[in-house]
Every structure is written in C-alpha cells, then in structure tokens.
C-alpha cells in the first residue's frame, strides 16, 4: 500500500466522522469537548475541518501518485469511490439538517450513478473513460460549495454564497454528465460493435474449420470403405 492509496483510505475514514459531526447532535458534543479541550470547537466547525481535510487528500493523492509514479489499479478504482462516498455523505447529511434542498442532492448523486454506469458499460467493452476537465472542475466546485454550506451553519452571512455555489455544482454536474455521454457514448458504441464483429468473424472462421474437418473426415471414411 503506497502513500497516495493511504491518503485515499484516509478520505474514506473521514466519512463517518463527518456524518457524526453533522448529525450527532448532543451525543457527539461531550466527545468533541474532550477531544478539542480548551479550543471549544463547535460541531459545525469540526465538520468543516474534517471535510476540508478530506478534500485536501483528494487533491494530494492524485498529485503524489503522478509525481512519484505510483498510479496503481487499486488507487484508480478506489479514488472515485472515496470521492463519491465523501460528497454523497456530506450532501445527504446536509439535507437531513435542512441546509441543502433535496432535489439538488438527487440531481448531483443521480449524475454520479449515471456516469458510473457509463464507465461500467465502457469497462465491459474494454474501453476506459478518463476523467474530463469538466468532471475535475465539478469536484472542486462541490468541495467549495459544501464547505460554504457547512460554514454557513456557524456563520449565516455565508449562506447566500453557499446557495450560489450549490447552483454552480448542479450546473457543472449536468454539463459534465452531458459531456461524458456526448464524447464517449459514440466511441463506446463503436468500440463494442467492432469487438462483437471480430468475435463473430472469429466464430465463423472456427465454424468453417470444423465443417472442413468434418468433410475431410467423411471423405477419408468413404475412401477407406
């Protein structure tokens, strides 16, 4: 397990802490007071710190993996899962505390399922979909927007900026999803059709060989008879 993958696992570990900080209520406060001591950090501030730390690991693990040439199959598969867990957990928790409209979260998470489904179809056809620039921008926008929403619980004057940022997240989510389907659906369809055609041709060649072998065997049997 290399350093970038450990950072990805750390991001997954942050998810239950974030949910507990946002939804734990009075149950979490004694533990938080014991943890922070004289700093007296509120649950909302603690949640913001956790979320920003988790978002920082998302930027850092990719950078280190490229810089140290430690890009692995496990990391490639685990990184988007960690991202989706973090963002989905944060958004669902914020819906529960009435800080984000539910319809926005449904659109954002629905986009993730749609793109993940597209990636699965592509992988089944032997085609790899790379993350687009819009997709990367969408992730950064999500981190900024969710951070503003969480901060707005403690500092209400940030709520207007948080709402604008959430609208930007919805916009980027829809546009980036459309970009994925526009750019790759035709390529995936063509790739899968080409592979199927090759498989069919190989099967036909095999059948011709079998028929020839059968005819030759019949001819030899007749000549011996």
Structural summary, described in words:
With 225 residues, the protein is mainly alpha-helical. It is built from seven helices and no strands. The protein is elongated, with a radius of gyration of 26 Å. The model has no long low-confidence stretch (mean pLDDT 79).
**What is the count of β-strands?**
0
CATH topology name, in short, is: Four Helix Bundle (Hemerythrin (Met), subunit A)
> What's the total helix number?
7
Alpha-carbon Rg, integer: 26 Å
How many individual domains? 1
The amount of helix comes to over 70%
Structural class: mainly alpha
The CATH class label is Mainly Alpha
For this structure, the quaternary state is single chain
Cα distance spanning the termini:
69 Å
Q: What percent of residues are in strands?
A: under 5%
**Biggest β-sheet description:** none
Task: Give the rounded overall mean pLDDT.
Answer: 79
Shape: elongated
The CATH architecture term is Up-down Bundle
